[in-house]
């Protein structure tokens, strides 16, 4: 898998995991909020919600109906009691039942308690539901608190002083112990006196205020009841805090339900932020560390340090001791391999640059020597001819002039070759190429090359093919190549060396010319640098013919004509130089 696909897959996978985690957190948050709201609803409205849930969650066992233990604990927490009645009004099961609660009800008695037609110290709630093929009747009761207190206050609290309601100590203690309050209002709803009234309770009531607070106590911090005295027009008010259920808000601006929702949202946002912070940290380790490593690697390459940054043990940071990629670096394997290859190439280029600098210095020294030697001869003969003390004969003058011309020609060849190498370096293209029959042409070129008296006779063997071979070449350049390769084979080997030249045409129509000698051959380094501009494998002073640039020029000319040149040699086994051109398409 390519790095683009791998990175895309990783980021998509991480995003998908993050999305699933966020959805899971949201689901857990919603579940928690619903459970808390259910608990609040159960606590605040147990008479309706709790009794229904008791029936729905009940199970039929060997001993009869079995209720949910948690719901029964809520009954106890509300200071209530619970009874299960059969169809005849007989109590089958009871839970937390006080001693003053009956164990048998007749139809009229139960209805009277429920409809408040008969005095009973408990508020009674009835729930009837069919399940398991039978009708279940649940009777739930909680002690009356407001009604007895209101009755006691209205009967005993006729006196007040300086806005303070005077009540019997027993009644006042009951009100204070339960965190409640009592008020006496005039006919206009203004407070005449009060006992233990909190600041959140108004001192003056409108018709709407009094009605809403008594009808919907769950909306406020206190539940209240009132009694109106027709004779005086006064109103007695008694209130108790909504703390029996334990979930109502103490702040009238934020209900318990809203507080649960806000807590859930805050918790979800905090968990999501934590997850994304953790994911960012993991991504920084997973993707940031390799990137910083690669940046440090590039920086070291820019400073000329051609090695991968290593750890304290001197081992590359991206690899294990076994040589395998570390897990966090495996994602960028292609990039790391490219960086490694770039490092090797730059190191090799730096080594070649240093070698080239050394070779160039040596070549400059050699070419300077090659230029100064003929120049010294020309200068010496020029001084002799210009000297008045000598009267040179015409034969001597012609001899001196011939030597000077020879040395000048050698210098011209050196300078031309040097110019040619720099032209090749800038990139030259062959002039108008022409179709040439190579069999006859190469034979004539070798005859002209063999005419050089320095080569000796019979040292060039031409193996011509039977058929004609046509190729597109530029004649002057090709003649230069043949002359350079011939000189390289015959001048730098012993006098008994033979050069065999073979011309052949491949099955695909390509052209091949092979120059093979049986001379002393070359070592691996000399063969590898044979076509380098600044490399001189032999002594620069071994011959005055040539510039020492012939092989570099030959390579450039062959490549400019669309061909390739290669060398194969070994010490004591001769040298083979192969020129090849692909078939024309």
UniProtKB/TrEMBL annotation:
Its main location: membrane. It is an enzyme of class 2 (transferase). Coiled coil: none annotated. The keyword Ribosomal protein does not apply. Its EC number is 2.7.13.3. The chain crosses the membrane at residues 12-34, 260-285. Residues 366-585 form the Histidine kinase domain. It is found in: Membrane. GO terms for molecular function: ATP binding; phosphorelay response regulator activity; phosphorelay sensor kinase activity; protein kinase activator activity. Pfam families: HATPase_c (PF02518), HisKA (PF00512). InterPro entries: BphY/WalK/GraS-like, HATPase_C_sf, HATPase_dom, His_kinase_dom, HisK_dim/P_dom, HisK_dim/P_sf, Sig_transdc_His_kin-like_C. It comes from the Bacteria. The keyword Kinase applies. One of its GO terms (biological process) is osmosensory signaling via phosphorelay pathway. Signal peptide: none annotated. It catalyses: ATP + protein L-histidine = ADP + protein N-phospho-L-histidine. Keywords: ATP-binding, Kinase, Membrane, Nucleotide-binding, Phosphoprotein, Transferase, Transmembrane, Transmembrane helix, Two-component regulatory system. This is histidine kinase. It comes from Paenibacillus riograndensis SBR5.
């Amino acid at each position: 898998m390519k790095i683009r696909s791998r990175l895309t897959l990783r980021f998509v996978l991480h995003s998908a995991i993050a999305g699933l985690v966020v959805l899971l957190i949201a689901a857990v948050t919603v579940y928690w909020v619903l459970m808390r709201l259910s608990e609040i609803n159960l606590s605040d409205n147990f008479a309706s919600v709790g009794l229904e849930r008791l029936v729905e969650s009940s199970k039929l066992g060997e001993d009869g109906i079995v209720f949910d233990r948690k719901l029964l604990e809520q009954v106890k927490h509300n200071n209530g009691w619970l009874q299960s009645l059969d169809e005849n009004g007989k109590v089958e099961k009871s839970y937390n039942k006080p001693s003053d609660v009956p164990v048998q009800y007749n139809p009229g008695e139960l209805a009277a308690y429920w409809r408040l037609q008969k005095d009973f110290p408990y508020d009674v709630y009835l729930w009837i539901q069919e399940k398991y093929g039978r009708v279940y009747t649940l009777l739930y009761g909680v002690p009356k608190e407001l009604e007895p207190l209101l009755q006691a206050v209205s009967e005993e609290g006729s006196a007040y002083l300086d806005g303070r309601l005077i009540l019997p100590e027993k009644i006042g203690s009951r009100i204070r112990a339960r965190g409640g309050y009592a008020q006496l209002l005039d006919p206009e709803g203004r407070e005449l006196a009060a006992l233990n009234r909190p600041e959140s309770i108004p001192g003056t009531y409108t018709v709407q205020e009094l009605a809403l607070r008594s009808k919907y106590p769950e909306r406020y911090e206190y539940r209240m009841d009132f009694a109106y005295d027709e004779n005086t027009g006064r109103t007695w008010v008694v209130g108790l805090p909504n703390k029996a259920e334990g979930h109502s808000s103490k702040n009238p601006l934020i209900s318990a339900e809203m507080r649960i929702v806000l807590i859930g949202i805050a918790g979800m946002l905090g968990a999501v932020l934590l997850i994304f912070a953790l994911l960012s940290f993991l991504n920084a380790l997973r993707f940031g560390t390799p990137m910083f490593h690669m940046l440090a690697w590039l920086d070291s390459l820019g400073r000329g340090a051609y090695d991968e940054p290593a750890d304290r043990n001197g081992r590359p940071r991206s690899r294990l001791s076994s040589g395998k990629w570390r897990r966090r670096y495996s994602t960028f394997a292609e990039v790391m391999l490219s960086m490694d290859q770039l490092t090797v190439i730059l190191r090799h280029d730096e080594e070649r640059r240093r070698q080239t600098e050394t070779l160039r210095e040596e070549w400059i020294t050699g070419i300077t020597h090659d230029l100064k030697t003929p120049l010294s001869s020309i200068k010496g003969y020029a001084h002799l001819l210009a000297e008045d003390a000598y009267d040179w004969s015409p034969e001597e003058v012609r001899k001196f002039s011939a030597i000077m011309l020879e040395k000048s020609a050698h210098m011209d060849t050196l300078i031309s070759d040097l110019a040619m190498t720099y032209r090749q370096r800038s990139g030259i293209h062959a002039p108008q190429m022409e179709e040439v029959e190579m069999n006859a042409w190469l034979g004539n070129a070798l005859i002209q090359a063999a005419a050089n008296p320095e080569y000796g006779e019979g040292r060039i063997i031409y193996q011509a093919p039977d058929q004609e071979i046509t190729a597109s070449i530029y004649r002057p350049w090709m003649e230069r190549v043949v002359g350079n390769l011939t000189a390289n084979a015959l001048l730098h080997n012993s006098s008994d060396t033979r050069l065999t030249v073979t011309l052949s045409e491949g099955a695909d129509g390509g052209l091949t010319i092979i120059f093979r000698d049986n001379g002393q051959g070359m070592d691996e380094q000399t063969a590898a640098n044979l076509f380098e501009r600044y490399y001189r494998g032999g002594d620069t002073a071994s011959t005055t013919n040539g510039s020492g640039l012939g092989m570099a020029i030959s390579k450039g000319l062959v490549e400019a004509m669309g061909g390739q040149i290669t060398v194969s040699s070994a010490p004591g086994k001769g040298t083979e130089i192969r020129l090849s051109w692909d078939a024309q398409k």
